[in-house]
Structure formats: structure tokens, C-alpha cells
Amino acid sequence: MTRNNISRPNTEPGQELPTCLALNPNNASICSAKTLRYSHKLCPRHHRELKNLTTQYTCKKNEAENIEKAGEYKLDERQALALISIKEAEIGMRSHVQMRFFSRAADNLGHSQRILLLQSEVRSLKKLIKSSPGDSLQESLRSPEPSADAEAIQPEASIHTASSPSSTEQLGVERKMQLVRRSRLSQQVPMEELNDLDPDHPLLAVKRFMTEMADSLVNKLIEIVPALDDSPHVAANQHDPSAMASETGDNIIRNWFRRLVVARGRPDELNLASRKTSIIEFLRSGVEVEELRKYVEYYEEIDINALRHLRRAVSDTFLAEDRPHITVLGGSVSIEDVADQLSTERWDMVFCFFKDVIPWELLPCLYLNFSDTAHMSKLLLLGRYGQGEDWCPEENPLHDCELGTYLGFVLSTQGSCDPPAPTIVAEGQGLRETEHRNYVAGRMSTNNPLAEPFLLELRRRTRLYLVVAWKGANLDEFFYQSNGDFTLRRTRTARTHGDLDSVKNDLRHQRSLLVETYEDYWQFLIVDRMPCQQFVLLQVISDVLAQLNGQPSIQKIVEDVIREVVPSKEQETYLQASGAAFDGRISETRFTDIEYEGNRSRCWDTESLLPELLDSRKGTKVPIDYARFITALCGNLESKGTIRIAEEFTPPQGVACAFPGSDGKLDLYIDYKALIAIANPSALPSSFDLPTEGSLLSFARAFKRVHGNALFAKGSIVTHYCAWPIDAVKHSSRGLPNFTTPEGHIYEWLKAPFDYPFSAKFCQYLIRHRFQECATFSSFHLTTFVICAIDTQDAAKKVTHLHEVAEKHGLKLSIPPISLWVDQYERTGLEKLYNGVRPAGHE
To answer: 667 with 660: CB under 8 angstroms?
Structure first.
């Protein structure tokens, strides 16, 4: 039982549908028909047949339940005999189903449990008929009096639950011999039973040959798996310290065999196993030669199903006595649908005793749910089961996404464009160009509170990524899928060489290693929208999860994982050894208190400033901290209704960037150079022209000439942080103004942005139009204005009127109190317009 003997699945998942698992009834041949779906196990014809048989034995079960309900207070002999007949019929039907449809399947514990239960009930009913008067039969079932020698009786198949004793203990009846017709060649018939035959009878020769063959196969099985020899002389040696060290491993292996016997569900073997108290006795006293050969093959070529049995056997080894179980071959086998989660100490035992049997590629066969996957992945990355060898070699993909794994994302598969450029190769007399897209697929638990926010954040990054999400194992029904082309590799001559289906086949292949009940996970696929990009998807995934987790330090993340999965007495050692180097792209800078909108205003006259600022950054990447700031600030602007996220991909018109302001804080700017380059100022009529410099002073001077005692004040229209106080203008072809962030979000402006071409001219035109009725006593240059009045009473009227007009159009004004108005307009500072924070070095 070594790793070299293990049968591994094909590493290249095929497109072909699986073959039906059923056996044909006439010649026991394997059905060659294909299933309709990858997840199906039977062809349509055998599926219908199984459905009909299931209906039949379900009817028998219902008949038995009706009789039991009718005889709740009194069950006579006639009813007991009817129950025996019905239950035996159900046993036959279930055995037929077991042989036909589940002999090649991974596990069918439900059928086996039901068959064992029915056999036990039938035996109990037959005994009660013989030992109890007909009119008190039900009373015997309800409150039996144990016989004096009940404890001395060898127990039969027993099923234990948390609330009831075994059937034999409850009934307390004496076992009686029953005549059973068997072939004299059966292994359950000893040689002594053939003493009536002549010494030279051919039957004796055949019997000796089969017995020798059976003994040879048992010896071979014990040679492969020595722990299966649980005879008394072996048990006596367990007092040897060296032997005691492997006792736990031997118990797991023996429970592994018990689990196999139950999973096979052969009624004759189950009946025999329920009456034997040791495995070696079971093997040497009745198992047929052909079945022994199958046991040998099972351990010679350990496959996926065997590893699943092993996982359940580990749970059985540490099963509490009050948990529901059946007793087989002197040991307990759980009858619960789901096994317990394995603690780190239990996984340590699996590694200690079976690391040479289980390759790291087949570890998923041991996982019952995503909790197992996440727990074991963290232990592997912490180096508990080999550093660069054993279960975590360098080729294990977990190494590629270490921080993401610690935060709950377990990598499934990936594909990268290497090098990040189209490849051009000669083909015949021409050239062929091929483009690739990077992609990553991975899982997260459905119980992880970060899973859905993670999906939402990736969905919002529409410029950079295409996203597909499935909930559970069904890859034919997605939970969410981005609009876009999921071609992963294409050439000039052939459109598609790899697409979404090819990745789904990889994921289905990985899913085939897992048990059917493994459903508690999200499956994500993230694809670069643009081909031939640098492969940074894994860093992005880790960064997003870190942001959603409150941006803890890397050391804090590792420490939390150690405290979660490492036994307490070993944690200090692991904490001292932690400090692995992670990718520098992960930022620990937090921007959680940005409230610029309504509290800060950025300068608007950037037409000449921004090109100079951008040139200073030419050829450099956006620092991760700046990218994080931009995302946080956009969240603030979005919450205040200045911008909104684009749910679907639209071509971005501008790129967000950040520069320090004159006060040291970062400010957001949008680079619209592509639009500015094609903008045509002459396309706008003269009514959109901005006022000339000093226009406000000229207006005040003219008013002073008419009203010598006039009062003056300089006011402003309250603006947004980096947008004018007017709605954004929707372009006929481009739509609303938008921009993209370094992290891939695309936002649309709901208010006219400062940096958009001609936005200042649109703002001036609308303000002039809205305050036209106030033109006799006020003048506006963008959001700065001068207000004039004859005296204080007139000033109060003019202020009220301006506020009314502003409120009508959804604007807010800032006007000094009348007590601060001046009669000398030169003192109002009208030569300068109100403006926000300017970039550092450009004050």
C-alpha cells in the first residue's frame, strides 16, 4: 500500500460525458451508454429503471409502516408474519438495486444501513413469533424482559442510536439455530461439513483448491495491510511500546476496512460481518474468493473512493459512544450522513500514518466540505506537513496565493499570459498572432462574511475584470456573470482556442475528487478584460480581501491564522517563526475617514496645471497607496451623489490620478487629455464664453457710478469637491462623463466635473441663465459673484431674492452678513475668484 500503487485520475479533464455506472441484469455486463450530464451517474434508461425500483421498495416500506401503526397497541402473529414478508421483499429489492446500480459507485451507506436494519428487524420478529404468544407480541416488542443468559449470547448485527440500545440488548432473546441452504463450495461451509464425501470426490479437490486460494488471498491482503490482522496474538503484542505508538494508525486502518464492508453493501457479507468480532476471523471464515480478490485489489490500487472511506474511518475511530452507529466486525461505524470535522490533531494522524499513501494532489478526496479545505490549506502553508516536500511541494498552487488563502480564498486554477504580449510565429508563408488573457479561479465558503462583498467589489471593477460566480457545484447555472467575451486565447486565423467551457472542465475535474455533499462554497472566476496584461490577479484578490477585512497588517493576518488552526501549546513556536515575505503590492495604508465632499474644495482652473503634473509622473506606476486613496475618495463622492458606479463596462473617457495639495493632503484629478485633444472650442456659440478677467470689478464700478452710497459684497455658489454645482451633460454618443480608477472601477459623473472639457463654459452659461433676473444688481463669474445694493434695507431684499432664485435651482449661496458689506468695492477682493486647494508647488 504505497504511493506508487495509487490510481490517480487523469490530470487532463476530458470533454466526453461519463459512462453509466449500472450493470445489465442479464449478463452483469457494464452499461456502455453515456449520461446526459457530467454530474449524472446513470444513463436515461437505467435512471428510469432505478426510479421505478425505488418506488417499489418505498411502497413496501410504507406498507410496513402502516401495519406497525395499525398494531400500535397490539401486534398479532399474522401482522408479524406480514411484516416479515414485506421487509424481506424490501431487502431483496434494495439488494438488487445495490448490485445493479451502486456496485461501481463511491459510497452508498444509506442502502447498507437500511439493509442491516431490516435484517435485524426481521430476525427479531422471527424470534418473537417463536418465543411470545400471539396476543402479547407487541408487548414483548415494547417492554422485553432480558433472559438470564442474554449477556452470554454473541451479539448479532446491531444498530445503536443516541437514545436507544441495540436491538439484541432490547429484545434480550436467545439465539436459535436456523437452517440455511448453502452451496457446499461456499467459504462459509467448513471442510468438516464435507466428511460424508469419499476422499477422492472431485468436490473435495475443488473445495481444497478454493480454500487454499482464499488463504493465499487473505495472506496477501495481510501482507499489504498488516493492521487487518487483529487476532488475539497480535493484540497481545500491543503492550510493546513501539507497537503501542502505531495503535491509533492500526485502529484507523481497521475502521477503514469496516467502512469498506458497509459501503459495499453485500447482504451476505453484512450478515457475516455483523456476527464476527474480528476482521481476520471474518476474512478466514466465509468471504468468497472473488470478493477477497476485490479486497486485495482495493488496497493494491487505492483510488478516490478508498480515500473517501479512509476519511470517514478517521471519524469512526474517534466516534463517541452515544453517537448513532452500527457494530461491524467488533468496531463502530457511524450511520450519520456527515462525518465530524477533523481537528488539527486528527489531520496530524492522517499525515503521520498515510503520507506515503496519499499524494498531495488527491488530498481533496479527504475533504467533506469547504471548512476541511480551508483548514488544511492553512496548515499546509504554515509548513506543518512538509516545507517544499510531502504535502506542500513547490508546485502546489497554494503557494501562489498565500495571503488570499489565509483570508479565505483557496485557489483552484489559473492561467497567465507569459510573456505579457501577443506571440507571433511563422506559419507556412505567413505569420500567426496569438493573444492570451490571464485568469484565476478559486473558492470561498458560503459562510464567509467576506464572500459576497468580495464578489460585489470585483463586479464593480468593470474596466479590468470579467467575473463569473457559481454557488455550489453546479457550473451550468451561474449566480452572476459579467457581460463580455470570455475568450482566453485567440489568433488571427481561429477566433477561439480556449473559453469559459475549458475552465469549467478544469473545475469539474477538480470537483470530481470531492464528495457529492461538498456544496458549501462559492466558485469564482476572474478574467482580465484586456489580453496580454501583467499577471497580478492573485495580488489583487489578496488586496481586495484585505480591504474588506479592515486592512489588518500582514503579521496580524498570519497570527490570527495560527491561533485558528494550530494547537494552543504549539502556537508560540509558530508565532516566532512567522514573518514570511509577501508581495509588496499589498498595502497596509488605511483610508477610512475621507470626507472631502462638503468639507473641501479642489481648484478648478487645471487646464494648464494638469498636463505639467502628469508629465512629472510619466512612465511611473500609480503607487498602491494613491490607488487606495482614490478608491476611498470615490466612495465618499458616490455616497454624496456626485458620481455613481457603472454597473456594466463602458469605455472610460478619463483616468483618475492623485497629487498632493498645497496643504499636504492628497487631491483627486481626472486626466481627460484624450478628449481635450479632440475638443473644438469654436463649436460652442459665444453665449458660452467665460467673462473677461476683472469683469466683477467692472460691474461694481459701474454700479458705484450710478449709486454713490452703494454697498458691496463678494459671494460664492457652494460647489462640490471637484465638480460644478450643475448636472453633468450627457453626450449623444459617449453618454455621461466618466472616468476609471487604477483599481478598475468606472464611475459616471452626476455633476459636471471641473476637469472635463468645456465644463466651466457650460457652468457659466447655466448660472448666467438662472440668475438672469438678478442681473441688475449682481454679476457672476463661474461660482464667484458680486452683489450690490443702494442701502442696508435694499441689501436685505437683494440677499433674500438671490437665495430664493438659488433655492429654486437647487443651489446654495455663501454671502457675508450685511454688517460686513463695504461701500468701497475695491476692498471686496473682486480681482480674484474663489478657488479651492491648489497642487503643491503651484500655489
So the answer is: yes
